[in-house]
């Protein structure tokens, strides 16, 4: 297991280096941020001073070398927009996205496993058909459309929920609800399909013949073996939210890492963009590592 984790860490590190190089040079292609941060009537001398102060006059390769040198020393640069360390800005936003992901994925995982397992126990029944129908709709529904519809119905028409912010419990309802729908539909379908396969196996038929209760068959005998493919999907969806629910955070004005990324790209705040990429990549690496550990715990063969 240690060897496997080490190999994954090396592969992830190489991927992170390549990603940083690509994002660094692509972000510079968006143009000079000088015009965005200086007034329209700024003189040529002021513009030149701004570029010189931030190192924009140097060739790109020199700028990249300086960035790598600072990065090795733990310096992720300064935010042009907020005039403070870029990593501080990113970590503040990441906390909001982290809790949004934890709340959403906890609700999604519990609901999808319970409903998907019950649907698989009576394949073709009314409950199974309803669960399949609504999960397919949820999996296919685009987040931006759901967010706009939710705002129109619950905020504009009914006036029962706020449209943006994080001040109270009610500010979290719409973002969590919109983020809940698509992963719930995807995970429920995987749980259902995996459980159908497991419940038709010989050992489950034997348990039924011995008179084992249905709840025990579903949630004790069947669910553990059915969880291997489910874990992968749960991990992918959790990583997607941790990586920044860009559309949902932007629509609801949620101060997470997704909205920060969009704002920083538009304002050419290069240091923050690169810090977001760094934090997001590390979050995905940790999530994938947790998935591998969960696989090993559920399937002893993987440990050997």
TrEMBL record:
The keyword Cell inner membrane does not apply. Residues 94-291 form the ABC transmembrane type-1 domain. It is a multi-pass membrane protein. GO terms for cellular component: plasma membrane. It is found in: Cell membrane. The chain crosses the membrane at residues 9-29, 96-121, 133-157, 169-191, 212-234, 240-258, 270-298. InterPro entries: MetI-like (IPR000515), MetI-like_sf (IPR035906). SUPFAM superfamilies: MetI-like. Belongs to the binding-protein-dependent transport system permease family. This is ABC transporter permease.
